[in-house]
TrEMBL record:
UniProtKB keywords: FAD, Flavoprotein, Oxidoreductase
Statement: the UniProt record of this protein carries the keyword Endoplasmic reticulum: no
Species in which this protein is naturally found: Alkalihalobacillus trypoxylicola
Gene3D superfamilies, per database record: 3.30.465.10, CO dehydrogenase flavoprotein, C-terminal domain
InterPro entries listed in its UniProt record: CO_DH_flav_C, CO_DH_flav_C_dom_sf, Diverse_Substr_Oxidored, FAD-bd_PCMH, FAD-bd_PCMH-like_sf, FAD-bd_PCMH_sub2, Mopterin_DH_FAD-bd
One Pfam family named in its UniProt record: FAD_binding_5
Keyword Iron among UniProt keywords: no
Domain annotation FAD-binding PCMH-type: ranges: 1-176
Name of this protein: FAD-binding PCMH-type domain-containing protein
Single GO term (MF): FAD binding
Length: 294
């Protein structure tokens, strides 16, 4: 007889946290359920208690503040992201990325909060490059952390952090008076819900003279946590976009990014692929802007 866990249906964040704190490692939060499906395929059995977050209204909302953030509830599905008017208007970068994540049937179930909670989700590096923040609940009060800080807490304080509930993903509005450029690329297998071999995203704010005022680069790969390439970003900020600077950036990525081998690709392949993809994008951007201003 198959194991049937008990399903809990809290209607507030506080109630959900209390249930999780009671059963701790023998329980799990659940929204779309796609992570549990992945774990089952790997032979990991469900815990005895599943805490559904679907009945908590505040986790389903999308809102926008004109001078602040686009706020996305953690239970918003990936398919809903594709069609929401606020996201189409203010963060269409997300749309191009979500279209490359899994199959439509999976996107109908998978949530943006679950993608982050899985820690390997293909959307994480996109949100990192967009400088996203996380509003989360720690059992006492709501906290706000930059996404990369939140991920570090999940990894380094896994035992004490396992009860935390992601409430909203906050994406800052794009600065005015800049040429905003967003790049996303995913290389890998196209099965319904398998991690990419390598995914990279880059957000740039460029002045008319090709000067880079803002640069955020994030990369993820199979069996390796998504991360910002902070050293490469520091190299690029304040520089004028030239072929020489792109060559320097290429060298720094090879030094900074340290993925791991997996059955489908070596660490060296992933490292060079990340550098090649970003360099190709920047060269294309340079040529495009040169034509515009010639």
């Amino acid at each position: 007889m198959s194991h049937v866990p008990q399903i809990w249906l809290p209607v507030t964040i506080e109630e959900a946290w209390k249930i999780k704190n009671t059963f701790r490692n023998n329980s799990a939060y659940i929204a779309g359920g796609t992570i549990l499906r992945l774990q089952e395929e790997k032979g990991i059995s469900k815990p005895d208690h599943l805490i559904s977050l679907r009945e908590i209204p505040s986790l389903q909302e999308v809102s926008h503040s004109q001078n602040d953030f686009l706020s996305i509830g953690s239970n918003v599905t990936l398919s809903y992201l594709l069609k929401h008017p606020f996201i189409q208007k203010y963060q269409n970068s997300l749309i191009s990325a979500v279209k490359e994540i899994a199959a439509p049937g999976i996107r109908n179930q998978a949530t943006i909060g679950g993608n982050i909670g899985y820690q390997y989700g293909d959307l994480i590096h996109v949100l990192l490059s967009l400088n996203a923040q996380i509003l989360w609940y720690d059992g006492v009060s709501e906290q706000t952390s930059l996404l990369h800080e939140f991920l570090e807490l999940m990894i380094n304080q896994a035992e004490t952090f396992s009860n935390a509930i992601i409430i909203n993903i906050l994406i800052p509005n794009r600065a005015a008076d800049y040429d905003h450029t967003f790049y996303f690329e995913k290389i890998g297998r196209r099965e319904a819900f398998t991690p990419s071999i390598i995914s990279i995203s880059c957000y740039l704010e460029l002045q008319k003279g090709f000067k880079i005022d803002e640069c955020r680069i994030a990369v993820s790969s199979s069996q390796h946590f998504p991360e910002r390439l902070l050293r490469t970003e520091r190299l690029m900020k304040g520089k004028t976009l030239t072929k020489e600077e792109i060559n320097e950036m290429y060298k720094v990525i090879l030094l900074e990014y340290n993925p791991v081998d997996d059955p489908f690709a070596s660490a060296e392949y992933k490292k060079r692929m990340a550098a090649n993809l970003l360099a190709s994008f920047l060269v294309e951007k340079l040529l495009e802007r040169s034509e515009i201003h010639s």
